[in-house]
Amino acid sequence: MRLPFLTPALLLLAACSIESEPNPPPSTRFVYPSGVAFWRPPAAGGPSASNGYLFVANANFDNCYDSGSVVALNLDALSTQADGQSVPVPRLGTAVAASPLLFESLSASADSLVQIRSFAGDMGMWVNPASGLPRLFVPSRAEGNNLFAVDVSLSADGAPVLNCVQGGVDCQTGALSLTDDIPASLQESGRPGLPRAPSPIGVTVDDANGTLYVTHSEAADSPANSSTNFENYLVTLKAENPTRDTLGFIPLSPEGYIYGGSDSTTVGTGYLFVSGRNFVAGDSGTVGANFVLRLVDKNVPTRILEPLLSLVYRIREARAIRVVPRPVTAAELAVRPHFVRERLYVLARGPDTLLTLDFEYDAPPGEQSTDPSFRVISAVPMPDGVSDMQIISRQGAPTSTDTNILAVTSTGDSAVSLYDEALGQVVVQVPLVNSQNQTSNPSQAFALTVDNPAGVNAARLFVTNFGDGQVAIVDIPDLTRPQDARLVARLGTQQQRDPNQGTSVCQENPS
């Protein structure tokens, strides 16, 4: 049969018709979930009375839809069918089903979703002390290199409502770019262009002062697109006013330091700790990481330190990092009144390792901190592709000061590993793999957040499985026995993939 001939005018008309057809992100399921955050209102009555709210960034990695999104879920509003009965998400600390429950229907209303650009990274959350309500921050590596800010409120019936800080539900309009329209006042002396942060990926909020820190995985050239004068910055903003008015750039590679990409930030007493990673540099392709860890003096941010960690333990790059205070005795404070002892946990790659480091220094209020000393306490092998890490605080026994539990995700084997600091080893790996072929459709456990309420001897993990489009719920029913952790539920419909091409199927999954 002979195919009908289309004139160029008709082809143009057909193309315009296709391009103009709106294809918004779905509210019924996750699409390459990346960043995640959890919140339970103080007035909710604790975990025995409320499951709280979950916020998830959808990266839209395959560009199946017009944009990415941020979705909010009231976990108490979800239900599924089990043995012919409607079953809700179990409360933390209560009995759970023998097999993991599947909550395919997300029950997200139109008010519970806002649009952002694709390729979302981490998610940060700041609770406004004036209103008691959260504000979410999500960076995007798509065109514009935006940082999105989303406000959360609750309707009369407790349903979450999301709105872009600049207004509306399409946060792409008027979003803050970290590479375009940078104020000229921020130009650095001696550099030909303006600072910029391409491929923003990590976001951290200092709750003590409301400062927001953003990392970017691709080094910035100057002028833009010149592949020269590379630098990496730690971007600063005020959580209460995340606009160009409060935008700042801290150069992480002063003279004598080699530039690189960065991944994560954690806030100590006197220093900000920033992890380094591989990056993409213009025409040069992926370049090996040139720093693993750098410290920024909080009171003198132009002062950058680089502990030569690679001389003590050789690793290729780093991902998530977390810092906690360590005990200081009264005798020590009598001699050094501003003495600080901190423990830093570093997720390293090449080889994949959980590093524990202790830092000691003096941090006089409002003044420059002293040069820290550090030592590596332990190096524990981890599964391939370590990605994110959260600290779980024990309640009560054991009584040793080294009692934290570290939850670590790994994209390589799609599992969450629990490291028990009291025992000095990984005590359990909870597999989160889906039922499909892991070669063509890997689950890729990516980011996680933790419900670790004070006074409760249990914790709950929420893990985004990037590849299969679901969020896994893992419970630790007894914090004295983290090895009893188990997968209790999955949220969302499993993402369908084309086994021949390994890409997602760009259509709604049947219910």
UniProtKB/TrEMBL annotation:
<protein>
    <recommendedName>
        <fullName>Lipoprotein</fullName>
    </recommendedName>
</protein>
<dbReference type="InterPro" id="IPR015943">
    <property type="entry name" value="WD40/YVTN_repeat-like_dom_sf"/>
</dbReference>
<feature type="region of interest" description="Disordered">
    <location>
        <begin position="492"/>
        <end position="511"/>
    </location>
</feature>
